[in-house]
Amino acid sequence: LKEEAKKFVDQMGATGAAHNISVVWFAQATNISGWSGAQSEFIYCPLTDVQSLSGYTSITDTINNQDSKGATYTHDGMAAVGSAFGTDSNDPLKPDVAIVFTDGVPGNPANVNWDDRETDSKGKKRLKSTDAANDAIERSNVLKNSGVEVYTIGLFTDEGEKRVINASTKEKVNTFLNYLSSNYPTAESMETGNAKASDKYVKNISDANGLADAFTTIAEDIYPTYSLDETTIVTDELSDYFKDIGNVKVYSQPCIEGTVDNPKWGAQTDITNQVTVTTDSNTVSVTGFDFDENCV
Which letter, b or e, does each residue of 22-44 get, where b requires 16 or more Cβ atoms within 10 Å of its Cβ? Predict the structure, then answer.
């Protein structure tokens, strides 16, 4: 998990965009740490710019320091996620995405099925799965209403494997992951899922390879890649004050050195005969230039 999570951070960093990433590791424990009012212990890194060296180091250090213990208090993790976004939500230039990864039944320790253990070995009352799930779904509903897209990844295998989970529990966990995610954007609880809107926000996996594929798919959803080949159309809409467009010449000009903010350009080349130019009363469109091949 640590390695795949760091690869995901690398994928986001490689886009060159100003991605801010926060990391929350959550687990039930008696020693509450770093979160006022929470019932779980977790390691937390606030939204941090992955493009800066210090930010990247902070994020990856948080991932490396992760450890697992106790039960799965997904609801407390969702509370921390809400705090992480804070006032950063609703910026149209920065789409907000939460990815929830879990390998445990909500509210229960490892290898325990849905709602079948209300006390631990010492007789201490445990949080029931249904209560923990409802709390998490309610918190996710608040996030989704504020414009956050929520993905969920569940790592579970069949009975007899390392992660013991019976068929009935598996069905409930699948419902939980769906209602927690943006597949059901208005879900309120385990009993009230409301309308389904998508299938893309839940990833059920069984091993590290599946996790790698899930992170890759999510990364492509968040920051899709586009081909700018020779079929790309560049259109310039001109002012109404242009009465006659006339003959149009098209030139290419390479960037030979410098930076994005201060480029140095080479000589222009007339490529009018290599592209297709179309005009109408106030627009000029050009196609036939392969930006992918000429990108530097």
Answer: bbbbbbbbeeeeebeebbbbbbb
Q: How confident is the model at residue 71 (pLDDT cuts 50, 70, 90)?
A: confident
Tens-place pLDDT, residues 76-100 = 888 888 888 875 555 555 678 999 9
Strands ordered across the beta sheet of 276-279: 233-237, 283-287, 276-279
More confident residue, 27 or 209: 209
pTM of the model: 0.70
34: helix, strand or coil: coil
Written as one letter, the residue type at 63 is I
d(CA 154, CA 172): 12
In the chain, DSSP finds a helix count (H) and a strand count (E) of 7, 12
For 9, list phi and psi in degrees, rounded to 5.
-60, -40
Say what angle helices 208-222 and 2-14 make with each other, to 10 degrees.
20
What pLDDT does residue 249 have?
92
Q: Is the dihedral of CA 64, 70, 71, 77 positive or negative?
A: negative
CA dihedral 135, 1, 183, 189 (to 10 degrees): -10
Instruction: State the pLDDT at residue 112.
Output: 66
Q: Model confidence at 126, in pLDDT bands (50, 70, 90)?
A: low
In three-state secondary structure terms, 21 is strand
Cα dihedral sign for 235, 236, 241, 243? negative
Nearest 5°: CA angle at 224, between 223 and 230?
A: 135
Nearest to 61 by CA among 74, 77, 48: 48
Q: What is the mean pLDDT of the chain?
A: 81
Q: Which amino acid is at 148?
A: V
Residue 268: closest CA among 248, 283, 253: 253
Cα separation, 174 vs 258, in Å, equals 52
